[in-house]
Amino acid sequence: MLCIECWVSPGTYADRGLPFYRYPAELVAVSTGVFEGQQCLMTPRTRSQWRAMHTTAANDGVGLQICWAFRSADQQAKLIRDQLAWGGKLDYLLTWIAAPGYSEHHTGRALDLDSFPPAEKFEDTPAFDWLCNNTWKFGFKLSYPIGNDSGFIYEPWHWCYQDIIENTALHQSCEVRKI
Fold first, then answer.
1. Residue-level pLDDT at 166
2. D-alanyl-D-alanine carboxypeptidase-like core domain: from which residue to which, for each copy (predicted)?
3. Could you say which DSSP state residue 150 is in?
4. Which of 54, 92, 110, 114 is at 20 to 30 A from 41, Cα to Cα?
5. Which residues carry out catalysis?
């Protein structure tokens, strides 16, 4: 079994400005919209803002669903182990799966979203366009836009609640879009 030290040196992540994330004090459940009865965990404030955003999107004719929310460090490690077992190369995997402790999903504020019905290429959906134009109103930000300097790939599905709503700053961060 691999250990965190085998995956990444903390200095490398720190050099890229990536924080080590701690679990939130409280997590609450919300339905994912993917499978009936399946629930995801997130912070209470994230859930409140997600529900408001989800309702507004639905009123605008846009279907959104959660694919992932909170993930523990053990779940993060399992994702990496599974990908390695399927022949994945570690250097590549760490461009789209953060090492345990370094994933925004550990905060209970990160949501991986998809359109409803699901789309093959999320960034080409009306749902993604809607998110880019509206999430800042609810405190969500696209974490890994094209050209980000975190070392992670472009993730149009990954949005993180910021615990504050600074409309201008968040809206400007969403303007980095697909090419």
1. 46
2. 42-162
3. S
4. 92
5. 155
Q: How does the average pLDDT of the chain come out, rounded?
A: 85
Class of domain 21-72+101-173: alpha beta
What pLDDT shows up at residue 11?
Answer: 58
pTM here is: 0.85
Peptide bond into 117 cis (omega under 30): yes
Partnered with residue 28 across adjacent β-strands are: 42
What Rg, from alpha-carbon coordinates, does the chain have? 16
**What is residue 155's predicted lDDT score, i.e. its pLDDT?**
96
Residue where the block lists tokens 């250097």: 91
Torsion sign, CA atoms 113, 77, 40, 36: positive
* Nearest partner of 20 among 9, 31, 30, 28, judged by Cα: 9
Q: Is 161 helix (H, G, I), strand (E, B) or coil?
A: strand
Between CA 142 and CA 137 the distance in angstroms is 13
Q: Domain-by-domain residue ranges, the chain?
A: 21-72+101-173
From residue 33, alpha-carbon distances to 12, 19, 30, 36, 74 in Å are 36, 30, 9, 7, 24
